[in-house]
Design goal:
Alpha-Beta Plaits; 4 helices; 2 domains; D-Maltodextrin-Binding Protein, domain 2; alpha+beta
C-alpha cells in the first residue's frame, strides 16, 4: 500500500528554496507531489483522518525539541530525509500502518535525572539521542534502542514515567 505524502511547512513558501527542494525530493521518493499544510498541525488528528498518509515534518538547523509534539500519539518517525545542510524531513506515519525499516527505535520518556537511571541506560539498553528540560523540572529524553519492552522495564524500575515510543528508523 502506497503512503500518500503530506508536507507540513511552517514557514512562508514563496521564494523558499528549501520548500521547493523538499517538494522535489518527496516527489522523487514517492512518485507523487505532496499535499502541503502550512497551518499548525495536529499530527495525531491528521493521521487519524488520513491513516495512509506520510507526513513530512521539517526540522531546521538550530531547532530543538521537535519530537515533543509526537509524545502520546500513535505516530512513529519511520524515516529521515536530508534535503540540505539546513533542513531534514522526518517522515511520520501512523503506528497502526507503519512498517519497521530497521531494528532501532526512537524511544521517548519523561525522566527525573537520577544516577541509577543513567547507569542502566548506558548498559546497552538505549543510547541518549536528545534531551530537553521542562519547566516542571523533568527531562524529556529521546533514546535510540532495540528493545522497547526492556526499555520500558528499566524506566519503570527506576521510578520514571514512560510516555511512549514515538518512532523507529
Amino acid at each position: 500500500m502506497t503512503k500518500f505524502p503530506i508536507l507540513y511547512w511552517p514557514r512562508k513558501t514563496t521564494g523558499d528554496n528549501e520548500y521547493q527542494l523538499a517538494r522535489k525530493v518527496i516527489n522523487t521518493e514517492t512518485g507523487v507531489m505532496p499535499d502541503v499544510c502550512t497551518d499548525d498541525i495536529d499530527i495525531a488528528d491528521m493521521l487519524e483522518k488520513n491513516p495512509n498518509a506520510s507526513i513530512y515534518y521539517p526540522v531546521f538547523c538550530g531547532s530543538t525539541g521537535w519530537w515533543g509534539e509526537l509524545l502520546g500519539g500513535n505516530a512513529v518517525v519511520c524515516n529521515k530525509v536530508i534535503i540540505s545542510p539546513e533542513c531534514q524531513l522526518m517522515v511520520i506515519e501512523s503506528q497502526k500502518t507503519s512498517k519497521p525499516r530497521g531494528q532501532n527505535q526512537l524511544l521517548a520518556a519523561e525522566i527525573y535525572p537520577t544516577s541509577g537511571f543513567f547507569k542502566k541506560m548506558n548498559s546497552g539498553i538505549a543510547t541518549v539521542a536528545d534531551m530537553l528540560a521542562t519547566d516542571a523540572g523533568t527531562i524529556l529524553a529521546l533514546f535510540s534502542g532495540k528493545n522497547q519492552s526492556q526499555f520500558i522495564n528499566v524506566l519503570e524500575s527506576t521510578g520514571n514515567s514512560y510516555l511512549g515510543c514515538i518512532g523507529r528508523y
